[in-house]
Structure to design on (295 residues):
């Protein structure tokens, strides 16, 4: 039987990534050399590597950023799940006015901690990299003095949501920056953290979430962990690689945790499945918060 096609991948836009993209360490282990991408029609396989210095995981080869951005803009199956693509096809552009707060309450959040900023009573400029479905963005738009978003998927019809960080108006600086589920999608997460710092006012806070490869479920399942999704995801962070990410880009770490509800509810111990989910699955995501202080 003929092998399935390696559909439409531009090989010239894939680069070999054999040193750690976070700490630049040269020594690493190939955990698997045959991870299929999320494109079900493609037989392309990539490696999952682990850095021996900082324990970061990444994929080799890896698409270069310009190509990655074009895959997101083109809603490619190499980077977006089929359900997301179907949803976009159905709704066309996402209308933020649907989230306007009303009597039925506020839209739910994966991690509500950025919303503490809404209660600060201070004026602030807000930037969200990767607006996703736009729920968090719509809440901040009501309150922030200046509110900008970056969403390469281009599914918003909003003048203040641009498709690339380079398209933000020049000279703007921000006080609150959110990167929820973004860094794992990028060729160079460290470069993005540095860019965000350059866009920040003194005292700005950054809220990041990304996959936690130190979690038990990741350690046990390795390349079979459901967060391992090339080329949708390219990076999986250890505690050490996350710390290097923040330190190198000059963000001072103020909080880190692995779940929005960090307390395990022991009353669920008798509900075996629920308890297991609380312990194992819920902690597969890191949440890190940092502050920018000029030296
Ligand atoms: Zn490393």
């Amino acid at each position: 039987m003929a092998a399935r096609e390696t559909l439409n991948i531009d090989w010239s836009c894939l680069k070999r990534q054999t040193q750690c993209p976070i700490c630049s360490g040269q020594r690493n282990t190939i955990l698997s050399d045959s991870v299929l991408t999320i494109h079900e029609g493609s037989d392309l396989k990539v490696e999952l590597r682990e850095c021996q210095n900082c324990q970061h995981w990444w994929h080799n080869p890896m698409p270069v950023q310009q190509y990655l951005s074009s895959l997101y803009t083109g809603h490619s199956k190499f980077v977006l799940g089929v359900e997301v693509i179907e949803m976009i096809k159905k709704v066309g552009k996402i209308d933020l006015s649907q989230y306007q707060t009303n009597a039925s309450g506020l839209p739910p959040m994966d991690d509500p901690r950025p919303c503490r900023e809404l209660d600060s009573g201070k004026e602030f400029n807000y930037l969200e990299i990767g607006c996703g479905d736009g729920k968090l963005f719509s809440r901040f738009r009501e309150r922030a003095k200046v509110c900008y978003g970056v969403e390469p998927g281009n599914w918003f019809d909003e003048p203040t949501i641009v498709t690339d960080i380079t398209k933000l108006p020049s000279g703007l600086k921000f006080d609150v920056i959110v990167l929820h589920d973004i860094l794992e999608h990028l060729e160079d997460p460290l470069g993005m953290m540095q860019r965000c710092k350059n866009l920040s006012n003194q005292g700005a806070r950054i809220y990041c979430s990304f996959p936690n490869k130190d979690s038990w479920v990741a350690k046990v399942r390795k390349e079979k962990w459901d967060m391992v999704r090339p080329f949708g995801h390219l990076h999986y962070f250890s505690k050490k690689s996350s710390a290097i990410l923040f330190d190198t880009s000059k963000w001072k770490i103020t909080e880190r945790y692995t779940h929005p509800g960090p307390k395990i509810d022991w009353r669920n111990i008798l509900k075996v499945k629920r308890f297991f989910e609380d312990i194992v699955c819920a902690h597969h995501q890191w949440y890190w918060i940092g502050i920018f202080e000029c030296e």
Summary: Helices lie at 65-73, 82-91, 135-143, 189-198, 216-221, 239-248, 272-281. Residues 1-5 have pLDDT under 50 and may be disordered. The two ends are 62 Å apart (CA to CA). Residues 82-91 form the longest helix (10 residues).
